[in-house]
Amino acid sequence: MLYTLLKVLISAILIAAISEIAKRSSLLGAILASIPLLSVLAMVWLYVDTRNALEVSHLSIAIFWLVIPSLVLFATLPLFIHWQWNFYVALLVAIALTVIAYFAMLFLLAKVGIKI
User: Fold this and answer.
1) Separation between Cα atoms, residue 67 and residue 63, nearest integer Å
2) Which residue has the higher pLDDT, 72 or 12?
């Protein structure tokens, strides 16, 4: 239980730090946020928990394929905000479109024989 709390604390500190840095510099915040910190942390925690590099490799491959549809969020959210949508509505619609893109990607990957 203590180990799980430690993982949560470290992860939360990194997220909070990035959001605080972004308040001062959107460029630096974007650079730090674009580094796949959550993915790296997930891989580290998975390896520490399992000592199985092959599982980490499988996670890394799955993340690779799912980064592509995640870009829908970053493309649509600024567009909706530019159209002066309410921020929360824009965010929810962008997330919904991203979820649809995830399912479409999983469908396409299955069609070409890639299983993640």
Assistant:
1) 6
2) 72
For residue 55, the one-letter residue type is E
Q: Which domain holds residue 21?
A: 1-35
> Given pLDDT bands bounded at 50, 70 and 90, which one contains residue 96?
very high
Residue 40 domain flag: no
| Residue 46 included in any domain | no
Token pair recorded at residue 35: 């580094």
Distance CA 100, CA 106 (A): 10
The residue type found at 101 is A
Cβ neighbourhood burial of 94 (10 Å; 0-12, 13-18, 19+): buried
Q: CB of 39 within 8 A of CB of 48?
A: no
Number of domains in the chain: 2
Residue (of 53, 59, 51, 93) closest to 73 by Cα position = 93
70 contact partners, CB below 8 Å, separation of at least 6: 98, 101, 102
Whether residue 66 is found in the same domain as residue 16: no
Which residue do the tokens 């159209």 mark?
A: 83
